[in-house]
Amino acid sequence: MNWDDTTDPDTDAAGERLVGPVADREDQAVEAALRPKDLGEFIGQEKVREQLDLVLRAARARGATADHVLLSGAPGLGKTTLSMIIAAEMGAPIRITSGPAIQHAGDLAAILSSLQEGEVLFLDEIHRMSRPAEEMLYMAMEDFRVDVIVGKGPGATAIPLELPPFTLVGATTRAGLLPPPLRDRFGFTAHMEFYEPTELERVVHRSAGLLDVEIDTAGAAEIAGRSRGTPRIANRLLRRVRDYAQVKADGVITREIAAAALAVYEVDARGLDRLDRAVLDALLKLFGGGPVGLSTLAVAVGEERETVEEVAEPFLVREGLLARTPRGRVATPAAWAHLGLTPPRAHTPGNGQGDLFGA
Ligand SMILES: Nc1ncnc2c1ncn2[C@@H]1O[C@H](COP(=O)(O)OP(=O)(O)OP(=O)(O)O)[C@@H](O)[C@H]1O
Q1: Which CATH superfamily is domain 45-191 in?
Q2: Residues at CB less than 6 angstroms from ligand 1
Q3: Yes or no: is domain 197-264 CATH 1.10.150.120?
Q4: Digit-coded pLDDT (tens) for 116-152
């Protein structure tokens, strides 16, 4: 994966966030050790696992290379991990690159022509590849062939190059941005969902075992509940809680230790951090729950408009704490409850405000 060429609003605009979904330097250093190695070890995503298992078993039984696979879903849900599992299950080597790293068709031709038979090519952020590279990929995926252009202008010639059969695993956070001709060339598309708290609890237990950290069931549940449906965040919170347990207690993670540690890092019981809460706080206390325009809300919390929109809002909307309406941002009843505040009478149900939530 190419970590340097991605712009991440979580780190660019709001400093490093403990609950940001994109990998930071420390994540990159430790994630390799925590990745499940086969489908049996991969937690959750039952449907995807079952379907992929069939695809891979069938290919193995035929002695064929597996079909191309498209994985879509938010960062940190396990797309890279699954691509490595696909290679491992097929007994094939894997090459890892990313859309932004492929600027020219020639870059892609160089990678494709050096693949071994059956190799898995993992192309992260496939929606960010350049157009000419994308067109070259169509032919490579379908016919295992590329045309390498030699020379320029009227004298340029296309030299066809045969490729060994390979499996492309494309990953994207935005499946909707992929041009249909590219999307159609994948034999299997899997959409990865956010994880349930009980699944994240298993992720935390498994990682704690690998990191040699003692944790009880309630401690794991506490961390899971604050991990925003994302294994990467669960693993990161676990590491911070482990530090706290070592320094402030006897190293064992219990519910109390997890809660106290994450209070230090300002990650609340639902996984909201300081920025998320500042947005909700302003919306409720300054604007009576809205509707209020995004720019006004951003000024009120002293952040850029983009930071509020791209960093804080998606999770608040997903959690059902904030709604985007044509008239502006509106807090839901759950937001009032979460901050322990009572909505003014005008915001209680049955007062004509229901239409703001599309009721
Ligand atoms: N199903 C799972 N079971 C256990 N651990 C998981 C699972 N999914 C992800 N993880 C853990 O979460 C971390 C992040 O996963 P991964 O790098 O595969 O995410 P990703 O979707 O590829 O993220 P990005 O899009 O940012 O590259 C990994 O270290 C892995 O240990």
Answers
A1: P-loop containing nucleotide triphosphate hydrolases (3.40.50.300)
A2: 1, 22-23, 31, 34-36, 42-44, 75-81, 124, 203, 231-232, 235
A3: no
A4: 999 999 999 999 998 889 989 999 999 999 988 888 8
Q: Is 341 annotated as a binding residue?
A: no
**Rounded to two decimals, what is the model's pTM?**
0.86
The 10s digit of each residue's pLDDT in 256-303 is 999 999 999 999 999 999 999 999 999 999 999 989 999 999 999 999
306 is in an annotated binding site: no
Dist. CA 100 → ligand 1 center (Å): 20
E strands, 27-119, in order: 69-72, 94-98
Q: What is the DSSP letter of 192?
A: P
In Å, what is the CA distance from 276 to each residue of 74, 268, 299?
Answer: 18, 10, 14
Tell me the pairing of strands 328-331 and 69-72.
Answer: unpaired
296 is catalytic: no
- Which class is 274-357 in CATH? mainly alpha
Hey, where are the domains in the chain?
Answer: 45-191, 197-264, 274-357
